[in-house]
Amino acid sequence: MSALDFIIQMSLTLFGVGFFLSLLSTLVDKKTNSAEKRLENLLPGINCGQCGYPGCASYAKALANKEAPVNLCKPAGAEVAKQLGALVGENYTNDDDFEEQLFAPRKVAYIHETQCTGCGKCKRKCPVDAIAGVIKETHIVDHEICIGCDECINTCPEKCIEKITLERDLSNFNWNIYNVIQNKSRN
Ligand code: SF4
Ligand code: SF4
Ligand code: SF4
User: Fold this and answer.
1) End-to-end CA distance of the chain, in Å?
2) Residue 141: beta bridge partners?
3) What is the pLDDT of residues 22-45, one digit of tens each?
C-alpha cells in the first residue's frame, strides 16, 4: 500500500468514526429532549418559579436528568407528581398532609338555617362579629370573617351549627411554599 493509499484509508476511517459518533450524540440528545418535552407537557406552564427553577422547562430538564424530586410543582398538585414519577421511574404516593399544608383550608362555622330559631345566642358569643341576623330570624355566618373558634357551636341550644371546610382555591393556597417543604422534611 502506498503512503497516499494509507492516508486516504485512514482519513475515510476517521471520517466514518466521526460520523458515527455525531449520529449517536444526536440520537441521545433527541431522546433526552423528548423525555424533557413529555415532562414539560405535564407541567402547568405558568412559570411561577415555586419549584425553585426559573420556569417549567428548567424543572422538566432537572427532572429528566434526575436532579430534582417529582413533587416540587405545587400548582400542578399530587396527581401530576404521580404522572411525573411514572415517567422518571420515581414512585410518588399522594400525601394528604402535604396537601393540607399547601392549601391550609379554612374551617368555618355554618348555620343550618331551617333549624335556627333566631335566639341570637351565637351572635352574642362570637368574638369577631361574624354572625348576622335579627332575633327570631335565621342567622348566618360570614365566612370571610369567621375564625373557626367554635364558640357559637358550643353555645347554640338547637345544635344547628357545624364546622365546614372552605374549598381549596388560590385565596387559601400557601404561597410561602418553602415553609411547607421544611415542615414536611421535619415530619
Ligand atoms: S412550580 Fe410548576 S408551574 Fe411553577 S415554574 Fe415550577 S414547574 Fe412551572
Ligand atoms: S366559629 Fe367563632 S368566629 Fe366563627 S362564627 Fe362561630 S363564634 Fe364566630
Ligand atoms: S344560637 Fe343557634 S338557634 Fe340561636 S341564632 Fe344562633 S344558630 Fe340560631
Assistant:
1) 75
2) 131
3) 555 555 555 557 889 999 999 988
DSSP class of residue 54 equals S
Expressed in angstroms and rounded, the spacing between residue 50 Cα and the centre of ligand 1 is: 6
Radius of gyration for the alpha carbons in the chain, expressed in angstroms and rounded: 30
Residue 141 CA, ligand 2 centroid: distance in Å: 8
Rounded to the nearest angstrom, the distance between the alpha carbon of 107 and the centre of ligand 3 is 19
Ligand nearest to the CA of 71: 1
Nearest alpha carbon to residue 58 among 74, 35, 32, 40:
40
Q: What is the pTM of this model?
A: 0.47
Domains of the chain: 3-94 (1.10.15.40), 106-166 (3.30.70.20)
**Ramachandran area for residue 89 (φ above 0: left; ψ -120 to 50: alpha; else beta):** left
Whole-number Å distance between alpha carbons of 103 and 170: 8
Q: At what angle do helices 96-103 and 77-88 cross, to 10 degrees?
A: 130
**From CA 33, how far away is CA 25, in angstroms rounded?**
12
* Tens digit of each residue's pLDDT (9 = 90 or more) over 107-158: 899 999 999 999 999 999 999 999 999 999 999 999 989 988 999 999 999 9
